[in-house]
Specification:
alpha+beta; elongated
Length: about 290
Amino acid sequence: MAEGQSPALVHFLAQRPRLRLLAYRLLGSAADADDVVQDAWLKWCKVAEGIDEPAAFLTTQVTRLAVDRLRTARRRARLGAQWLPDPWVEPVEPGEADLSTGLLLLLERLTPDQRAVYVLREAMDLDFAEIAAILDKAVATCRQTMSRARAALKGGARYDWDAAQTATLVQRFAAACDQRDYAALVTLLGAESRLISDGGAKVKSARNPILGPDRIARFLLGVRRKFQPADFAFRMAEINGLPALIGEAGGRTRWVVTLGCAGGRIGGLYLLADPDRLPYSTISESV
């Protein structure tokens, strides 16, 4: 125990990274995840001395607080605009592909209870008895909720996140955008590729998904033409545990794009340009 730290604080700090990741999976927002973890800390401070299993107690509080947020603030539907989850820029352990933007978007199909059961079961590897205790529901109800969650997710886009292959595709994609090479972009994109963009309230973005290699390539080249070659640069990054690109101009981050790959092609492109949620600085111009 560090000098001057109470046992309650030591227990909480040991659990905090796991709790924040759990809250993020449930909410898709790093800021909301931080708020939930802070609220759990306040609850923990009041009862810590009487709790025998800190991890179980804190997991329960974070889950319930996050579910309450999902029930009371369906913030995703912003006048028909598209929504993307916040980028998760902290390192993740191998096998954490369930943090991918594509899967987080699929989870938006679920009800709050379905999302909680799915995340606790698939991401946290809890058994149904533990999940039932956390959500204060019957075990049979949680099993049924999980079955409905899986059915709701069936048929959604899933990608093969082969690290080496994806890194190569990201590099080729960056070069094609930088060189404004329409033919190269079309070649890299899958026949059923889809681009989703989110500019928040400050940056103009497409209100609907852009479908197909031709339309996506033209959209990307239109974005690229807004910046002079000497003033623009891509750099590789790891977002949600996967390769991604950060577009920079004038010394500022303009957007972050993560790529979903399948069959040697790029199938999903997730472009976030909301200055309030970019992880690397702020922006003010439209894409």
